Amino acid sequence: MRSELRSVRTGGVPSVVDLTDECAEFVNGERDGLLHVFVPHATAGIAILETGSGSDDDLLAQLDVLLPRDDRWRHRHGSAGHGRDHVLPAFLPPHASVPVLEGLMQLGTWQRICLVDTNVDNHARHVRFSFLAG
Fold first, then answer.
1. Torsion-angle region of residue 58: left (phi > 0), alpha (psi -120 to 50) or beta?
2. Residue 79, SS3?
């Protein structure tokens, strides 16, 4: 298995960061296998969704509805409502796997691989790309 840890800056606002081009670069030149994308953080997730047409903004808006940033959370360190960030990975898992055939990810036409980070207290993230040859 080949694996690489990459750094991502998300800024101080909830973010959907498209990693698809980096993922494609990582598997370029490989044969058949499986790409696994993993974020080793307790307050971020990986999603496969369409971006650029508003879906990424819709996702963040719906996370605010589903997981409001208020004082209801028992986990209380960090900024107000930060406890919801620790619940996020139960809804958006910290990983995704994508089949790779002849060095190309087998994503659907509009599918993109994205880091979803709602934690405004931590602007630096890591994402691990791993390729398991078939």
1. alpha
2. coil
